[in-house]
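Q: Could you write out the predicted structure for this multi-component system? I'm mainly interested in how the pieces pack against one another.
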Amino acid sequence: MSPRHHPTHHPADATLLRLAAGTLNAGLAFVAQAHMHGCAQCRTRIAAFEAVGGALLDSQPPATLAPTAFAAVLARLDETPAPAPAPRQAKLNLPPDTVLPPILATCDIGPSLWLGRGVRFNKLRLPGTAQAGAPQTNVILVRAAANRPIFRHTHTAQELTLILRGGYTDITGQYATGDTAESDATLLHQPRADAEGCICLLAFEGRLLLTGWLGWCQRRLGG
Amino acid sequence: MIQPTGACVKAPVSRYDAKRSAARVPLSRVPLYWAALLSPVDITAPLDAAAQVRLIGLVAEAQDRQAFALLFKHFAPRLKAFHLRAGLADGAAEELAQETMLLLWRKAAGFDPARAGAATWVFTITRNLRIDAARRRQSPLPGQLPAWPEADPSPSAEALILENERAIRMRGALDTLTAAQRHVIELSFFADTPHSSIATSLKLPLGTVKSRIRQALTRLREQLGGEA
Ligand SMILES: [Zn+2]
């Protein structure tokens, strides 16, 4: 995520359009947002899609408001909103040069859980949701040691990964810091961390299906 | 009480101390605010993009309630229409329109006219509110998208003008889409469904919907000079 990195893998147009429209699954939206912090190109892309939303809004024929609408809003202009509670985050002990996207500061981070040799993960609870892994908000932070296979898995729907540090390689290519990888239910893959190791955010719709002997870990993912 | 009604009025400047604002506003923004002092705003017509920017500036700099009234008159009925179109009930659409206007008031200082047009900014506020409301109802909708980091503290006058032009061109660009293309783009915004569900509701193959969206986005890109 540092300035010298220019991501080469970005979310697809369809994903960014749903993000702009507000119809993308919360977990995927969170990871796409995190990517955009370090990607000027995607910030420009989504600005254009949001401008479509702005143009649609501005061209709506006006609806009739309640007669008291304006007075009701005026009466509330001087209210002070209550501040959001501070998130609770487990200590991650990340390498000191890891640059985390600021959006990570907004969520709770659960305790580290083991997911095979050299691989750990933490569940994230997104702001405004009752619990980690609430429907449609599955996001985990995965840390894999150098050259370790991350885990062999497939998913029941869409998945979006963002590399925060290091990188990984799978059958679809090599992904470096700042890159996103998108995949759907048709892909069974086993990413392997690169020589630097890999720290990534992973959001998935539906369930993540671990295959092989790690399948038993499944219940830890709430799947 | 100030009402958002009435005939053609001067841009609201009553509590707006131009000298004080000129000292606080980056120099590059000053011409637009001066323009706000000089040009009349016809509130019987929809606010154009430049007037929206000026009025939000007045709310940000001077907590100007008359400017807010004009913004309310323009945006609140359109916000309600937008949410009605997206399938919300009358009461919920009304509430979202009012909440959006309240946040417009609170967040006006964070509006960066060099980054997005005013209508686009208002759209992102209301989109996030709709997401929040849906999450409270525990329906499968996304988490709130926080504001973009790193606002440019002093956008150039050119940047402001470019962004205004872009907002206007986007309106025009939407009008150049074919009816079928516009339909899938609108469905992307007004229906909380992935493209596969849009395909089902239109009784079209998913590939057709995807290629229509792709064509529409390509067309918008061309119209916007390759920035989309
Ligand atoms: Zn990108």
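A: Regarding packing and overall arrangement: Chain B touches chain A through 79 residues (CB under 8 Å).
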